[in-house]
Write a structure and sequence with these properties.
The chain is 45% helix and 15% strand. The strands form two sheets. The chain has a five-stranded mixed sheet with strand order 2-3-1-6-7, with helices on both faces. It catalyses: 2 GTP = 3',3'-c-di-GMP + 2 diphosphate.
């Protein structure tokens, strides 16, 4: 067998990095134009910058759909291990097409950027906020208990509604969002597609109910009542023919002793 191929050095002058350099520099990545950078550090900075760009929406700077789905998969795995609840919110800007048709697409872009900033101010560092597509956004909230989900969504809705969007010196707009939410089910191994579909269904219900409101899916009750436990594990079932009664009751007497 032959040995492994000899290591070959790569010279920066042999690479076509001008476009990549421009993209990363315009994105605000530091360290690319410093004269004391070594070729290795420079090339690594370009690669890291391009990776970052591939995960970001260019208009709002939020996570894009590719990154969002990766986070969802990671969150499902984490929840399966820890058992902690996780909430997915899907948000849609109400009557966004009318904004574009009336004021133009530049005004629409300004509205998207404004809503993105407002949403960013409402989430925790541990949350993931993404532009899902068009005028739709998504938020993944790890470790979010059912008791707090509705209040969080309502706080986000109110924040967007109360924010004035300055489109031009002569034009201010007020926009609202509809919000749908669904929890990842702790006792069922879910999928990203199913989780998104459930949250999207709630978003559709919020919009159908009049927009500028929230709809959070009620969590199914996975607890077992005392009566159900008794039926499953207690003495409600008589012993089978020839079966030791203690096998049904765990070795404990279930009736009064007759002294025999």
């Amino acid at each position: 067998m032959t040995g492994s191929p000899a290591h070959q050095s790569v010279f920066l002058r042999d690479l076509r990095l001008s476009t990549a350099h421009t993209l990363v520099t315009q994105s605000g990545a530091p360290g690319l134009v410093l004269p004391n950078e070594t070729p290795t550090h420079y090339l690594q900075a370009v690669i890291d910058g391009l990776c970052e760009l591939s995960l970001r929406d260019p208009l709002t700077g939020l996570a894009n759909r590719r990154h969002f789905r990766t986070v969802l998969e990671r969150e499902i795995d984490r929840m399966a291990r820890s058992g902690e609840a996780a909430l997915l919110l899907m948000l849609d800007i109400d009557h966004f097409k009318k904004i574009n048709d009336t004021h133009g697409h530049i005004a629409g872009d300004i509205v998207l950027q404004s809503v993105a900033r407002t949403l960013h101010s409402c989430v925790r560092p541990m949350d993931t906020l993404a532009r899902y597509g068009g005028e739709e956004f998504a938020i993944v909230l790890p470790s979010c208990q059912a008791a707090f989900g509705r209040s969080i969504a309502e706080r986000i809705r109110e924040a967007v509604e109360s924010t004035v969007v300055r489109v031009s010196p002569a034009l201010d707009l007020h926009v609202s969002v509809s919000i749908g939410g669904a929890y990842a089910l702790q006792w069922i191994r879910s999928t990203t597609q199913l989780w998104i579909e459930r949250a999207d269904n709630q978003l559709y219900q919020a919009k159908s109910a009049g927009r500028n409101r929230i709809s959070i899916e009620e969590q199914p009750d996975s607890t077992v009542s005392a009566e159900e436990k008794s039926m499953l594990f207690g003495s409600s079932y008589p012993p089978l023919h020839g079966e030791d009664p203690s096998a049904v009751t765990g070795g404990k007497s279930v009736g009064p002793s007759n002294g025999l």
